[in-house]
Each structure stands twice: as C-alpha cells, then as structure tokens.
From TrEMBL:
Span list, region Disordered: 171-238
Compositional bias (Polar residues): 207-218
Protein name: DEAD box polypeptide 55
Residue spans of biased composition, Basic and acidic residues class: 219-238
Organism annotation: Fasciola gigantica
Length: 259
C-alpha cells in the first residue's frame, strides 16, 4: 500500500488490518530516496516499521513458490490479467492515478517528492497497458515505460453484468450535456485560488480605505474654518487689553467706595 496524505490516517488504516485480537500486516513500498519517511513515522506517530528483504517478500506473497520473481515477470503477469479483463485494467489505471496524486498532496512532500518519481518505471510496476492522460505527466519523462502492443478497444469485461452496467453508464453519459473543463494540476489550481483570494483582499482593503477617506472629508467639511488674518488677531488683542483696563477701573472704584 501507499501512505495516505496524512500520516495519522495512514497509521490508522494499517491498524485496521488487525482487528478483534487478530494479526495483520501492511506492506509499505518506498524508493531508496524515500527511506527518511520511516524515521518520520517513528518520530511523528510513534510506530516501528520492519524492513523486509526481497526473499521475505516473495515468501509472504507466494509461499509455495521457490523461485524469485523479477519485476519484469511481475509486470508481465499483471498485464496478462489486464488483457483478459477490462475491469482489472481500469483498476490498475485508477491505482496509478491515485498513487501519483498522493505524491502531489502529501503533507511530507519534501520527503516524498513528485519530481523524483520515474513515471515510466512506475507505469510498468502497475502493469499499465497505456499511460493515462494526466496534467502531472504532461512534461514528465516517460521513456522508461514499455507499452505492449495491444488494442485497448478489444479488451472486454470478463463478467457480463459489469459489461452491461458500463454500457448503461456510457449511454447515460451520451444523453447528458457535456461541459468542457480544462484540467489543471493541483499545484496550479491552488496557486490560482491563492491569487483570487489576494485580489479579493486587496479589493476589500481598497474599499475600506476609500470609505475612511470619504468619512474624513465629510468630518473636515463640518469643522469651522479658521482664518489666519493678522488684523483680526490684533483686534482681539486690543479688545482683551480694553477689557483688562475696564476690570482694573471697576476694581479701583469699588475700593474707593469702600473707603
């Protein structure tokens, strides 16, 4: 299995292999440059993982077989099954797409990097007959993929009930209107959402500043205007001096009356 995008969910999923006291086993396949993820699980989730040798893995998957299966032999067997049943072929494609998208969305994208994937070798490992169309594969190097000579249209479903169900689904799709939507990689879609959010925030700040400036202008318009006229100031000073003299005169008259 592959680790889920969230480490805690991955550990929980592994724990479901052993329930009610029963024993279970979960196999995690990692590339040599991804071994650091094991240390991450030990530190972050407090779980211990045991490394299996190729021989132990062969004995676990095929105990009755004494021969060591090469990757090419495993790929050949998977492709034989996919050629016999279209349902298995569709499942292999969905598994490949899910695996690639997991690398795109994982929380430890520094340890499990999408750029380090060899999509050609990965397609062979999943036993694909053709590489699917994905935005992540648009500019990727897929020269290592060995596409077998097979006509995909001639691959039929092994079970008649599944074939009938697929025919009904195809007929319903033809009746429904088609909406063409340009598919984008997850990173570009996230970047577009971030740009849209930034534009919305910028527009909101601009509206807030414009409202504040307008309220400030309306407040300033109601304030009394002060004219810096020197003549008016001199007149005020003269009136103040006369007022002081009048008060002194009244005070002197009051003292004279008392005497």
């Amino acid at each position: 299995m592959i680790p889920l995008c969230i480490s805690s969910a991955f550990v929980h999923r592994c724990g479901r292999t052993a329930r009610c006291g029963a024993e279970g086993c979960a196999l995690l396949f990692l590339a040599p440059n991804e071994v650091a993820y094991v240390n991450f699980l030990e530190i972050n989730q407090k779980v211990q993982l045991t490394e299996l040798s190729p021989y132990e893995l062969d004995q676990m998957c095929a105990p009755a077989s004494d021969t060591h299966l090469t990757p090419e032999a495993v790929t050949s067997r998977i492709r034989i099954f996919c050629k016999r049943d279209r349902l298995l072929y569709e499942k292999s494609v969905r598994a490949f797409v899910s695996y690639v998208q997991f690398y795109r969305k994982h929380e430890c994208h520094l340890l499990l990097s999408l750029k380090d994937l060899n999509f050609g070798v990965l397609g062979n490992a999943f036993g694909l007959l053709r590489l699917p169309r994905m935005p992540e594969l648009r500019d990727a190097n897929t020269s290592a993929f060995n596409a077998p000579a097979v006509d995909l249209d001639k691959i039929k479903y092994r079970e008649k009930s599944v074939a009938k169900q697929r025919e009904l689904m195809k007929a319903n799709e033809q009746l429904q209107p088609k909406f063409h939507k340009n598919s984008k990689p997850w990173s570009k879609a996230k970047e577009a959402r971030q740009k849209k959010h930034d534009k919305r925030q910028k527009r909101s700040r601009k509206f807030t500043n414009a409202t504040a400036d307008q309220s400030k202008q309306s407040t300033d318009s109601h304030r009394p205007t002060i004219h810096d006229d020197t003549k008016d100031i001199e007149e005020l000073n003269e009136d103040y001096r006369l007022l002081k003299r009048a008060r002194k005169r009244k005070a002197a008259e009051a003292e004279f009356d008392c005497d």
